[in-house]
Amino acid sequence: MSFQAYIDNIKTKTGMTPADFRRAAESKGILRQGVKTSEIVAWLKRDYDLGHGHAMAIVLTLKSGGEPKTTPEDGISQHFKGYRARWREPYERLLARVRGFGPGVSVGPTSSYISLLRNRKKFAIVQVTGDRLDVGIKLKGERPTSRFEPAGKWNSMVTHRVRISEPSQIDAQVIAKLKDAYDRA
């Protein structure tokens, strides 16, 4: 079972998140210096009816200072919150096409964009705004055009940028440029 699965099961069973357990532990004085892990585990088993493995998962979050790390999917979802949600479906369709290029395609969300990777090597990025998707593509040596403009200061990790203001603009030309970048990666 993954660490996140433990946390999800605990939330289902108790209704509490790691942050809730932290607050409860602080109010009980359990997080003070010198308290042993076995004492925390005993408290979690006694007061919340957790098994040993689940209790140890909570101990880990208490000792690490907070919530478990977010998953890549959590990171991607952050890019599509609120007014940017309308771009989630076009992004997913774009990603499905990119995954069809061949093996080794993955994504790597950052706080400002989503990297498109081939065997962990970045060949493109997608940045989501309320108005559009900006797709940055690594096409070193290829001349910019009016549509595939130079990336310039927008993002130095790619050479070209295409602004997508309507989902229909994710067309064969964009897919072909992404495929070219994938092949070069």
Describe the structure.
The chain is α+β, with helices and mostly antiparallel strands and 185 residues long. The chain has 2 domains: 3-64, no CATH class; 72-184, Aspartate Aminotransferase, domain 1 (Alpha-Beta Complex), CATH 3.90.1150. 43% of the residues lie in helices and 16% in strands. The protein has 7 helices and 6 strands; from the N terminus they run H-H-H-H-H-H-E-E-E-E-E-E-H. It has helices at 3-14, 18-28, 37-48, 52-64, 72-78, 88-99, 172-184; strands spanning 105-109, 114-118, 121-128, 133-137, 149-150, 160-164. The chain has a 6-stranded antiparallel beta sheet. A hairpin with a 4-residue loop joins strand 1 and strand 2. Helix 1 crosses helix 4 (52-64) and helix 3 (37-48) packs across helix 4. The longest helix has 13 residues, at 52-64. The mean pLDDT is 92.
**Fraction in helix:** 40-55%
Order of helices and strands: HHHHHHEEEEEEH
Are there runs of 5+ residues with pLDDT below 50, and where? none
Structural class: alpha+beta
CATH class categorisation of the largest domain: Alpha Beta
What's the rounded overall pLDDT mean? Answer: 92
Order of strands, widest sheet: 1-2-3-4-6-5
- Evaluate the radius of gyration: 22 Å
The 3D shape can be described as: elongated
Number of separate strands: 6
